[in-house]
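Explain this fold:

***
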Amino acid sequence: MFTIRPKFFDSPWFVMEPGNWHLLPGAPEDVVKEFEEYQAAAAETLNSPEE
C-alpha cells in the first residue's frame, strides 16, 4: 500500500470528504496530475487480487 503522504494532501485545492475525495475547480496542473495518479494507483491496488 502507500507509505508516503502525497503532497496534494496539504494543498488548499484538496477536499477530503469521506468517500468523496476531490479537487476544487482551478487546481494547478501539478496538483491535478499527482491526485489523478494517486487515485489510479489506489484503484489498481483495490481491484487487484490478493497474492
User: Anything to note?
Assistant: The chain has one domain: 7-47. The radius of gyration is 12 Å. The chain has a mean pLDDT of 90. Helices lie at 29-47.
